[in-house]
Amino acid sequence: MSKAERAGAILEIDLAAVVANWRLLCAMHPSGPVAGVVKADGYGLGAMPVAQALYAAGCRHFFVALLDEAIAIRAAVPEGMIAVLGGLLPGTERDYLGCDVVPVLGSLAEIEAWSATARAVDCRLPAILHVDTGMSRLGLDRRELEVLQQEHARLKDLELSYIMTHLISSEVSDDPLNERQLQRFNSACAGLPPAPRSILNSSGMFLGPRFAFDLARPGAALYGINPTPHAETNPMTLPVRLTARVVAVREIGECQTVGYNATWRAPGRRRIATAAIGYADGLHRSLSNRGHAFFDGKAVPLVGRVSMDLTTFDVTNAPGVVPGAWLEIIGPAQTPDDLAVAAGTNGYEILTSLGRRFHRIYKPA
Q1: Which strands make up the sheet holding 81-84, listed edge to edge?
Q2: Interior/surface letters 135-149, b for 16+ CB within 10 angstroms, e for the rest
Q3: How remote is the C-alpha of 76 from its chain's centroid?
Q4: Is the pTM higher than 0.90?
Q5: Any residues with CB less than 8 A from the CB of 208 and at least 6 apart, and which?
Q6: Catalytic residue from among 39, 55, 223, 348
Q7: Catalytic annotation present for 55
Q8: Is 275 helix (H, G, I), strand (E, B) or coil?
Q9: Residue 304: enclosing H or E segment and its boundaries?
Q10: Separation of alpha carbons 298 and 171, rounded Å
């Protein structure tokens, strides 16, 4: 028996759809390149295969959150720029050098540390400068920005690849925060040495040409998450399908309970299917008694608590569900965004929670 035949759940990733999403975003951004953000293991879909597919399609800019993520994909993108959004941790400078990875510098201390490394190797080193325009997480704050604007010499040992910031509320196209950040970013860049600029995330790409600048950095949109949640349709293609195998089906009587703590009670005679997927696989426990799976395009309600390895569904109205059948958890009938609404989260968390026990099938680009 093959691994696929033994699997309790199968995750299919269509790399051609990821590439198609990237190409669509490239067509929307004629002012410069479009990067591939592959942090969090490619948003749960696999950073290495995603990076390989994007690189083969022509992508040459990649962003990750952590240095180890950059090191892991370096072989897949041999001539690509890989930048680490999380900044330059003390003592990691030689690791950046050894793997030709670009740090995103967000403080004067990081600038000085990377500049000292440049002096030690007697070579100007590439860097991306991060300016905070309202997120209050990473990036030069107002005080440090003012210092740097007055003391450009602090950057003399560095080659600024880009100056970047991160949008707070770009998925809400009419949020005044977008315009405020754009103004702050323009003001910040006006006082810094000239360099290419980057502000766009996935949703930001739909804010119009004034936000475009030089480099776009979409992440979630590559993986089918809707970057325009208030629009009627999602412009992106979903590259993910997750199915879970039914391991048991039983009939229960009226008032019989299902799952831990007896949180669901049958209103009459029901057929209950148990599927080999649970919160250890990323199916959120918050979906208990409120989520759905799909069989032959028909919704089957999730009943009882989601447990670690198993989840139960009411398949009374789906007589075709028998042991060995497959229930669709994510796919055309239920996108990550749809599942997120039921779970009380967002599509990003749905994808990045996907577990490692799935049998993964990659459809080539």
Answers
A1: 36-37, 61-64, 81-84, 102-105, 125-130, 158-164, 197-198
A2: eeebbbeeebbeebb
A3: 19
A4: yes
A5: none
A6: 39
A7: no
A8: strand
A9: none
A10: 30
Which structural domains are found in the chain, ordered by start?
16-223 (3.20.20.10), 240-334 (2.40.37.10)
CB-neighbour burial class of residue 100 (10 A; exposed 0-12, middle 13-18, buried 19+):
middle
363 catalytic per annotation: no
Q: How far apart are CA 212 and CA 36, in angstroms?
A: 16
Q: If residue 313 lies in a helix (H) or strand (E), which one and from where to where?
A: strand 311-314
10-residue averages of pLDDT along the chain (365 residues): 83 98 98 98 98 98 98 97 97 96 98 98 98 97 97 98 97 96 98 98 96 97 96 95 98 97 97 98 98 97 98 97 98 97 97 95 95
Count of Cβ atoms closer than 10 Å to residue 318 Cβ = 20
Q: What is the tens place of the pLDDT at every residue in 304-341?
A: 999 999 999 999 999 999 999 999 999 999 999 999 99
**220: nearest Cα among 3, 26, 16, 22:** 22
In whole angstroms, how far apart are CA 159 and each of 35, 63, 117, 128, 276?
19, 18, 13, 8, 52
User: Which residue among 96, 162, 260, 298 is the active-site one?
Assistant: 260
DSSP 207-260: S-GGGT-S-B---GGGGT--S-TTSSS--SPP-EEEEEEEEEEEEE-TT-EESG
